[in-house]
Amino acid sequence: MSADTALCADPNYNFAYIDEQTKRMIRRALLKAVSIPGYQVPFGSREMPLARGWGTGGIQVTAALIGPLDRLKVIDQGADDTTNAVAIRSFFSRVTGVETTQKVAEATIIQTRHRIPERPLTEDQILVYQVPQPEPLRKLEPSEVETRNMHAWEEYGLMQVRLYEDIARFGHVATTYSYPVMVNDRYVASPTPIPKFDNPKMNMMPALQLFGAGREKRIYAIPPYTKVRSLDFDDHPFTVQSWTQPCTLCGARDSYLDEVIVDDSGGRIFVCSDTDHCEGRRELGHVGPAEDSERST
Amino acid sequence: MNAPFQPGRGFRDPVLGPQVVFRAVLQAMSRPGRPTTLQPQGVSGPSVAPATALAILLALCDYETPVWLDEEWRGSALRPWLAFHCGAPMAREPNEAAFGILRAASGPAGLARFAQCDARYPDRSTTLLALCDDFESGPRLSVEGPGVQSREMIAPAGLPEEFLRDATDNAALFPRGVDVLLVAHDRIIGLPRTSRLTLAGENA
Amino acid sequence: MYVAVKGGEAAIRATHDLVAQMRRGDPCVPELDTRQIREQMKLAVARVMNEGSLYDEDLAALALKQSQGDAVEAAFLMRAYRTTLPRFGSSAPLDTARMAIRRRISAAFKDLPGGQVLGPTYDYTHRLFDFALEAAGLTAAPAVTPGGAPLDESMPRVPDILGSEGLMEPERALPDDPAPCDVTREPAEFPIDRDGRLQMLARGDEGFLLGLAYSVQRGFGANHPFAGEIRMGETSVRYRPEDLGFEIDLGEITVTECQMINQFSGSKDAPPQFTRGYGFAFGHSERKAMSMAIVDRSLKCRDLGEAADYPAQKEEFVLYHCDTIEASGFVEHLKLPHYVDFQGELELIRKIRREHDERAAEPALFTPSEAAE
What we know:
By secondary structure, chain A is of the alpha/beta class. Chain A is built from eight helices and twelve strands. Chain A has helices spanning 20-35, 56-65, 83-96, 144-152, 157-170, 199-202, 275-283, 289-296; strands at 41-42, 71-76, 99-100, 109-113, 126-130, 181-183, 187-189, 208-213, 218-222, 228-230, 257-261, 268-272.
């Protein structure tokens, strides 16, 4: 550890855990990913002290990015205190000593699993997604040799057929998360299992979006201000989920809500999945219908 | 060229120095056309090349990345410096290079000489550092494409001949193609293959 | 009112203490020493080194202790540690023809140069409990009386013997003998060459490869394998540092090598001959080496122009799914919260059912199950 970093990182490991040669390899992959938006760059994914499938791709991307001036936020399901988010945040605290935060506005790097924060991200932020399956065509075509050719020659007919079959059967596309997107009018990409509610946020986002799939050994990227379109049809345009009731805690009507079972007879309430968004709103005095009624009685 | 080898210096901090450089390069490549300031983090080497360009090579290259230099520079002090600091092999041919340095003195840009790869693995193409005099006094170019909100205006001076034409041909190859990073003193501008350049007129 | 659950960090810290407590078990029982594991659980240590992709008996013993004997968890510890180690290069090829043999058998020949060396094996034991082992501290290893003549200096590998007759598919080094690929540095690219395949199989899960090998034998495969040879013993690892210019001896490791012999009916280009499958594992790991050899041969189908009809012949299927760490990580990641996605599914299924009910309500037709909802 060098002397001019006043960080209390675990001295038994290199800063950010992985060695410098590995960081260079990941950094080169990231630069190519940015240059070919939506294309999955193979990279020599390393084994990390967290399990495959538990965010090792996102962790390696963050490890290649992070420096002493960063402030890191880690969310899983939109929340900072879910088990995976806690484990990854404490890992980076230990191996970098970098400051962490739970506030979207304060973060320079946000590592996420399954959500994009509700608060619009800025040009000064990087969003790092943990990706379980980077290949949007994998469920249609299990062979990597084949899917690589399909991307190379822009043969996405199979995906269109699959979506259209849903419409024929259910009346709409029966995909609620990992809803495939077209990046920069060229590559079909997986937005990772974020709910399709979040897909529109990817389009022309001011922040850089980086995607790390550790087990599958792929990195891809969406540069800032890049066109991202959710696949749809003229007669069946893409739509997002909506709820008939607001967040029970903060009254938000425009955020993604989690359903919480409150008793054993089917009673349930809905609360914001993005905990920072919900807390921020409550700090500003917003209240939900539950508290509203409690106050008025 | 038998002058004694001048090792110069590597990164002041071998871990955090490359991190700073990488973040600046990432910033530049994600926001094409927008200049990013990049201090070389203590790196110094043969004076022929700007320290910022050397710092970028040192941050990204190693024994896995063949580097291409033009014939004159292959015989210069740059070659032993690169071998000493990053162990990078010299690319024998431009299309074997992971990285390369372009400069006006070595003739036309010739972007098509470098590795473009096939559409199955378009990531295996060359990344080129193109040395410029400055970003203000050259022909005015507008930059559009992913990473650019509407358009950026740049005026790089001292680019290799035919760079603009080559860059246009290169963009048409997408998803194949090389990626370029312009370097002038301690500033860099990213021009990945997605960037569309158009001539906006001579500088006043 | 509802209060969102907080305190994830404290709960997670508590799990660390609880697992430490469970690992130790009853404190009245003496704690395991990692040296005991290294010396007395050698086969478990070998499996952890194989799937952990790192030859270090002491670390593997520690990994087994730390993981309460869970081989998969122990291999995971090895892999995570392996990431932090610098890579110096590739060793010189091991010369297993010259290894110090402790066991060497061939099922293809009754006798052969060098002879059959049975060595330490459970193969010829009756699987009956030895209750004497239960009484701690009482069992000394029996003294082994050296049997007959010392082993032959020369222990040629069986496929090489067949090769001299031209009956065996030759193994040829590639032109220029390039350094083997390393799938831990560069991700595997398909179709994959044999060096990458063998590396992935060597790191692969023993149970998965065993099942695949078994499927080949039972009919989900085209070849009947013969155990041409299995050998186990010690061999030295040599490495030539670039700056030194000559080979140095890094030390001795225990390895198991298996070569399976299979029929090949020939093709329009090649006369009928035997083909081979190659298996190699750290430590004494015969089951692993044999399974690997059968699967390696099965995956040669592309090169030999055989139809790839069965699971064990499909290289993407076999190689993408044989890794212990990747498979266990991804299956077990289902324990992580997925409630955001599940919410999307809930919303969708309610919507589809609502639409279905609306359609069904027209002729007022309810099935009992819908009516009971």
